[in-house]
Amino acid sequence: MGGHRLAHLLCIALALGSLCLYAQERPASHVEVPVGQSGFHPDTAQDTTLSFKGMVATFKASSPMTMVMKPAGSSKTVTLPAEFTQLTSARLYRTDRLVISGMVNGDVSEVVVIDSENGSVLDHFLCYSPAISPNGRYVAFVRFYPAHGMNSVEDHYMLYDVQLSPEQNRPSGANHHPSVVGKVVFPVGPANRPDGNVDLGGGPAHEMASEGFFWNDQSTSVVFADEFRDEFAVVVVKIGRRQIQF
Fold first, then answer.
1. Gap between the Cα atoms of 207 and 189, Å rounded
2. Chain center to CA of 237
3. Which of 94, 127, 122 is nearest to 110 (CA)?
4. Tell me: the pLDDT tens digits for 33-63?
5. Residues in contact with 132: Cβ distance below 8 Å, sequence separation at least 6, in sequence order
6. Pick the residue with more confidence: 187 or 149?
7. Is 206 helix (H, G, I), strand (E, B) or coil?
8. How far apart are the first and last CA of the chain?
9. Phi, psi dihedrals of residue 13, rounded to the nearest 5°
10. Cα dist. 166→79, 117, 171, 240 in Å?
11. Any idea of the CA torsion for 71, 87, 113, 93, to the nearest 10 degrees?
12. Closest CA to 205 of 165, 145, 149
């Protein structure tokens, strides 16, 4: 890895202590159809139609972007957040949660959770490198921080549970906050609090060393690589059986 040695292999079992999730309780209905466009090209975006079990969703290349859903016998139009500019991927969890990821600009991404039965946006948040699990229930991502104006930043690796409410996915007092969202799964120790990953005083900081997150087919573990003090770690996060705890 670029002249550095592989320092250690870390397995974080999220079934003990304060790092707790619970596994999927029943099979999920999910389909993902990659958009197939790499890079940030909003000026050349076209309408994209994705087919899921029992539903077809068409993402309109408009400003703001809209999504037209056609479940059995009805049609609903959902206006996506104004900053959501380019679709990346989408997965359906169960039959009532559509999870989509897309780009705000060339660096920042956004995740939007849609109530596909009522045709409304349930939650949305800014982040980097989001990866939706194969069953559609979880989103792994790097916590958002401003690209400019910070003395130092650190990558905090997060997990969001689509089955929980926006409030349950955030610490107390951060209801629907656009960046204070999810559970910190690595590094071990930091809590999810405002400015917890910025202006760290110039000390050593964790930085993502892989091209994103990699889920297993069962959505029970996600893998990524981290760099810290010029050493690399392969981090394996295992999904436990209990609810996210803050």
1. 16
2. 15
3. 127
4. 444 456 766 677 789 999 988 789 999 988 8
5. 32, 89, 90, 91, 99, 101, 111, 138, 139
6. 187
7. coil
8. 35
9. -90, 110
10. 19, 17, 10, 20
11. 60
12. 145
Side chain identity, residue 50: L
Distance, CA of 110 to CA of 123 (rounded, Å) = 11
Return d(Cα 53, Cα 198) in angstroms, integer: 41
Q: What is the DSSP letter of 41?
A: -
What CA–CA distance (Å, rounded) separates 34 from 97? 18
What are the tens digits of pLDDT across the range 197-222? 776 777 788 999 999 999 999 999 99
* Tokens of residue 1, six digits: 């890895």
Per-residue pLDDT, 19: 38
**What is residue 233's predicted lDDT score, i.e. its pLDDT?**
94
Q: Where are the domains of the chain?
A: 6-239
pLDDT band at 26 (very low <50, low <70, confident <90, very high): very low
Q: What is the mean pLDDT of the chain?
A: 81
Q: What are phi and psi of 44, to 5 degrees?
A: -110, 15
CA distance 53 to 40: 29
Q: What is the mean pLDDT of residues 8-36?
A: 38
